[in-house]
Amino acid sequence: QVQLVESGGGLVQAGGSLRLSCAASGSIFSINAMGWYRQAPGKQREFVAGITSVGSTNYAASVKGRFTISRDNAKNTVYLQMNSLKPEDTAVYYCTSGRASSGSWSFNSWGQGTQVTVSS
């Protein structure tokens, strides 16, 4: 079983920045991809960003150019640097882990989520 622990959420004004962190532990040997999803009230959970162990990345169009995902394989930790935040970025952000191959992403472990609130 993989355990994911998130940190870094909080309240910021529009245009500000936050950095989220997620550390994985437990049965981590099968993991080659980590990422972030988010869910706003009344909305479906949506993909934000993902990264493989070799550094390949994928971003939702809504965050490309503003958010950057990175990973420290030695620490089994993934980060999400969020810049130029907008009120529509307000959501609970969930860390996830799984596998990716041939452009197909499969996430099967989830953190508890961390709240990000952006005021206008």
What does this entry show, briefly?
This protein is mainly beta and 120 residues long. The chain has no helices and 11 strands.
Count the beta strands. Answer: 11
**Global outline:** globular
Strand percentage lies at over 45%
Report the end-to-end length measured between terminal Cα atoms: 40 Å
Order of helices and strands: EEEEEEEEEEE
Proportion of helical residues:
under 10%
How would you characterize the largest beta sheet?
Answer: 7 strands, mixed
Mean pLDDT: 94
List low-pLDDT spans: none
Provide a count of the helices.
Answer: 0
Q: Structural class per helix/strand content?
A: mainly beta
CA radius of gyration: 13 Å
Explain this structure.
The protein is mostly beta strands. It contains no helices and 11 strands. The protein is globular and about 40 Å long. The model has no long low-confidence stretch (mean pLDDT 94).
SSE topology:
Blueprint: E1 2-7, E2 10-13, E3 18-26, E4 33-39, E5 46-52, E6 57-59, E7 67-72, E8 77-82, E9 91-101, E10 104-110, E11 114-119
Entry keywords:
11 strands; four-stranded antiparallel β-sheet; mainly beta; 120 residues; seven-stranded mixed β-sheet; 0% helix
